[in-house]
Amino acid sequence: MTGWLRHQKHALTTALKRLLAFPLATIFTTLAMGVAISLPSGLYLILGSLNQLAGDLPTRPEISLFLDANASAPQKQAITARLKQADIAQARYVSKEQALSSLGQTQDLSDITAGLTENPLPDAWVIRPQASSRDGLTRLANDLGKLPGVADTHLDSQWAARLQAALAIGTTSVWLLGSLFAFALIATSGTAIRAQVLARRDEIHVSRLIGATNRYIRRPFLYTGALQGLLGGVAAGGVVALAGWVLRAPIAHLASLYGSTFHLHPPTTIDIAVVLGLATLFGWLGAWLSVSRTLRQVDSSR
Hints:
4 strands, 2 domains, four-stranded antiparallel sheet, alpha+beta
């Protein structure tokens, strides 16, 4: 066990020395990997923030039922009884006082509502039907609109369902993009390691003559690839942090125009650990593929 640890320490030290021996090449390789990792990582964080925003929205279709201002008590009771039938999943009553109070709490509308001499808003019901098809929802909205005492109906929340569908497409696109950049990361690491193996061809020949195995020769290169991947992950974190800092103010301004407090959420500790782990793994994998192939070529050329 002690011998194995000593070999690992020697291989890691050798890998660090090789990276420090060519600082410019190491920097450019790290930046290339960082950019490749930052694109899917940044899109993933943006989608995560949008998913949290969409999670607060009603994803199921809703029907808003506005009552006539002159609706009588029997008519209101009949409407309440109708909303208890099986085709209604949930019904929530919103009085005109509650609606005005909520409107007054909305940004840029408090001054307008404060100047009103009387409440112009109607009493309303917010209904979640059992049906989910467009035809079924339209039919129910038309039936409810014909009830005595109902002034108007409005079918909404379809935009929220469309938002969820768009986010699902975005999530799939991020995974596809991440897979493509994973191959790019492996190729970048493999190319860099291949150049190092070819530059040390004579050194490898001498090591073979004194009994070095492929595993022993391969080990420092694997550590080099893993370290390059780790540095690429750190660089990606810097790129994403810089982009988030640049976009923070414009996004906050845009959200304020819509009366929203939306903002980009920073990555969690788990997100950071996953990105660094995957970057290290892909760097190691690219190094393993490259050095194994190159060693076979070196052996065949002897």
